[in-house]
Amino acid sequence: MLPHDLPDWLDPSQEAFFITINCLQRQHNQLALPEVWKQLIESIEFRENRGEWKWKLVLAMPDHLHGIVVFPNSFFMKKSIASWKRWLAKENGICWQRDFFDHRLRSAESAVEKANYIWNNPVRAGLVESAEEWPFVR
Questions:
Q1: Three-class SS of residue 109?
Q2: H or E segment at 103?
Q3: Which domains, ranges and CATH numbers included, belong to the chain?
Q4: DSSP letter string over 54-85?
Q5: Which residues fall within 8 angstroms of residue 14, CB to CB, at 6 or more apart?
Q6: pTM exceeding the 0.90 threshold for the entire prediction
Q7: Residue (of 48, 32, 15) closest to 121 by Cα position
């Protein structure tokens, strides 16, 4: 069983999580749309400026998104994402699945592995031939 306590060597303000948030209706493009992407990024940046979180990487697929996120206080992770999802649902009509998936990144190696997974998701899905072609990533 993996320990769930924060490792002693990790600064809590730098604790990173791999996040996956799914739309309720799979196989339907709700996120990989230029106007939705623009609002998604603007809302991320708005909350970053408030100190709520810092997205190191975010990528929208048609029916889900992945990211690597640092929360200054992980206690607020669930509240922050829930509030953000509500706002995006109201503004863009996105229907989200309940909750989200999070995985604490316990090492730099784990973070690199997850970042590569995120970057290559559109390639694996057959949406583009190379990761650099996918426009819905920051």
A1: helix
A2: strand 101-104
A3: 12-133 (3.30.70.1290)
A4: EEEEEEE-SSEEEEEEE-SSGGGHHHHHHHHH
A5: 70
A6: no
A7: 32
Tallying the residues shown for the chain, one arrives at 138
Partners of residue 18 on adjacent β-strands? 68, 103
Mind listing the pLDDT tens digit for each residue in 54-71? Answer: 999 999 999 999 999 999
Enumerate the β-bridge partners of residue 65: 21, 60
Q: Which residues, in sequence order, are CB contacts of 26 under 8 Å at separation 6+?
A: 63, 64
Q: Which is nearest to 9 in space by CA: 127, 108, 120?
A: 108
Burial of 60 (0-12, 13-18, 19+ CB in 10 A): buried
**103: its two tokens:** 């995985």
Residue with the two structure tokens 């106007």: 35
In this predicted model, what pLDDT tens digit does every residue of 72-98 receive, in sequence order?
876 689 999 999 999 999 999 999 999
> What tokens does 108 get?
């730099």
Q: What is the pLDDT of residue 2?
A: 41
